[in-house]
Design a protein that fits this description.
The protein is α+β, with helices and mostly antiparallel strands. It has 4 helices and 8 strands; from the N terminus they run E-H-E-E-E-E-H-E-E-E-H-H. The mean pLDDT is 93.
Length: 184
């Protein structure tokens, strides 16, 4: 995997995207490099009903990506910017191990994701079926003290494409999916 994804912390800003094709054309015109396009990502979110991870500010998932074939075990939190992910070979085996440890899959989500590199940033264009399009500007670091500066750097980059602070989507995709399910 690219060094774009190395680091314990992620400075990330997400926006609702009104015109994904126009945005893609803009970043490509600015020299964005394709990492992966139109991957289907399925996330299996696990939690323990007796000691919920969410109460500790933690989210744990197993992610399968196709056609790239990338498989990850992801733990986010407890700090909102904290993100750890490791490559795995067999998602079903890891899901089985988590079940053995008392965790249950409580939510499965799917999105279409394309990732582009623009300088040090990775820009993600995501489509959540029946919900809409989103753009994320992100950069990873091992130094928590760098997060304010890196968040500012990502916001400056986002502004170049017409995004403002008022357009920031503060919910995680997990929260967006849960809200969408509750609204049905």
């Amino acid at each position: 995997m690219s060094n774009h994804f190395v680091g314990k912390y992620e400075a990330e800003i997400k926006f609702k995207l009104l015109n994904h094709q126009q945005f893609l054309q803009q970043i490509m015109a600015d020299g964005a490099e394709i990492f992966t396009e139109n991957n289907t990502e399925t996330d299996y979110f696990f939690d323990n009903p007796n000691t919920p991870l969410a109460q500790q500010g933690i989210s744990m998932s197993v992610r399968e990506m196709w056609p790239s074939g990338i498989k990850l075990w992801i733990v986010k939190g407890p700090a909102t910017s904290e993100c750890k992910a490791i490559d795995i070979d067999d998602c079903n085996h890891v899901k089985s191990m988590l079940s053995t440890l008392g965790y249950q899959c409580h939510l499965t989500t799917t999105k279409t994701r394309s990732i582009y590199f623009l300088g040090e940033a990775h820009i993600t264009i995501d489509h959540l079926a029946d919900i809409g399009w989103f753009a994320e500007f992100a950069i990873m670091t091992d130094e928590k003290s760098q997060l304010p500066e890196l968040n500012q750097q990502m916001m400056l980059l986002a502004r170049q494409y017409g995004f403002t602070e008022t357009l920031i989507e503060r919910r995680s995709y997990k929260q967006i999916h849960q809200a969408h399910q509750n609204a049905k």
